[in-house]
Amino acid sequence: MAIVAVGSVNTDLVVKVKSFPIPGETVYGDDFSTYAGGKGANQAAAAARLGSPVAMLGGVGDDGNSSERLADLRDAGVDISRILIRDQTPGGVALIQVDDSGQNQIVIVPGANGTVSPEDVRDALPSLLSAGDLVLAQFELPFDTVKAALEVARAADARTIVNTAPFVDGTDGLLPLIDILVVNEIEAGQLLGRDPVSVDEAPSAVQQLRSTGPGIVFATLGSAGAVIHDASGTVTIPAPQVNVVDTTGAGDATVGAFATALDDGLSTEDAARMAVMAGSFAVQRPGAQPSQPTRRELDAFIAERSSDS
Ligand code: RIB
């Protein structure tokens, strides 16, 4: 089986700050770095680094940043042959602040990501898919483009795994097209039309969300781990304690690893355990894609943490 990511490619422009400025305030940053990012590219790279065959469908510009992002994806092992190169629009960028606790604030400017149309997806995606493959989507491409990807996947008997980030209105209408739903506490609340879900509320929230269509619901809870719900029931998965440097892209490392593990045939619970470990690994290093583990790094981290307990 294979994984096809339909999603964004960004260049992340990252500043480290002691604490986030309030509106109207100017503060000094400690450091400035440029990293490979974009939720789609991050999730594609995360799965490819763990050994999955991954192709990506998306859009970049013909600028220098975009060339570097394509090279990064290729180096991670992603098939980039279906990424569209636009000559009139620059590649997507994300302006990111990371504070001393590792939390972030992100503003994205879609650029070429915003030019990927439903027609582009209907043209390119069918030839990439076989029954049982996984289509991985997020919401940094236009909503109708994501919807078209899910429809094409359904027609091809592929499974869809959707991370509802960033949350956009109308996502609830796509739930019947989603086989595997990945949300964080805020997105779970948004989908249920309520406030963010607390750790204690997460088990009932995933059950409620599964009743809307998806066969598997995976709610990530940051340092509290995750909760999953499928036909076998609900399981809470703790995260190991780690030194948090930068949470940017940790959710994407989690989703990519979850896709790899499911594609490898692991049970939902085992896949979620591996995914939580991948996310915990990623928060210990700066940057989105540079923080993701290889298979060897993840295996070593899991072995080290199981011998701790
Ligand atoms: O999920 C993290 C990602 O969100 C960053 O890499 C940034 O590009 C934004 O898309």
Short description:
With 309 residues, the chain is of the alpha/beta class. The protein has helices spanning 39-49, 64-76, 118-124, 143-155, 185-191, 202-210, 250-263, 268-282, 295-308; strands at 3-6, 10-16, 31-37, 54-61, 78-79, 83-86, 92-98, 104-109, 134-137, 159-163, 180-184, 216-220, 226-230, 233-237. The two termini are 34 Å apart.
- Calculate the mean pLDDT score and round it: 97
Q: Which percent range describes the beta-strand content?
A: 15-25%
**Looking at the structure, what is the overall shape?**
globular
Q: What small-molecule ligands were found?
A: alpha-D-ribofuranose
- Portion of residues within helices: 25-40%
CATH class: Alpha Beta
Q: Secondary-structure blueprint of this entry?
A:
Elements (H helix, E strand, L loop, with lengths): L2 E4 L3 E7 L14 E7 L1 H11 L4 E8 L2 H13 L1 E2 L3 E4 L5 E7 L5 E6 L8 H7 L9 E4 L5 H13 L3 E5 L16 E5 H7 L10 H9 L5 E5 L5 E5 L2 E5 L12 H14 L4 H15 L12 H14 L1
Parallel strand pairs: 1-4, 1-9, 2-7, 4-5, 4-6, 9-10, 10-11, 11-12
Antiparallel strand pairs: 2-3, 7-8, 12-13, 13-14
Bound molecules: alpha-D-ribofuranose.
Alpha-D-ribofuranose binds next to strand 2, helix 1, strand 8 and helix 7.
Explain this structure to me?
By secondary structure, the protein is an alpha/beta fold. The chain has one domain: UDP-N-acetylmuramoyl-L-alanine:D-glutamate ligase (3-Layer(aba) Sandwich). It has helices at 39-49, 64-76, 118-124, 143-155, 185-191, 202-210, 250-263, 268-282, 295-308, and strands at 3-6, 10-16, 31-37, 54-61, 78-79, 83-86, 92-98, 104-109, 134-137, 159-163, 180-184, 216-220, 226-230, 233-237. The strands form two sheets. Strands 1, 4, 5, 6, 9, 10, 11, 12, 13 and 14 form a ten-stranded mixed beta sheet that branches.
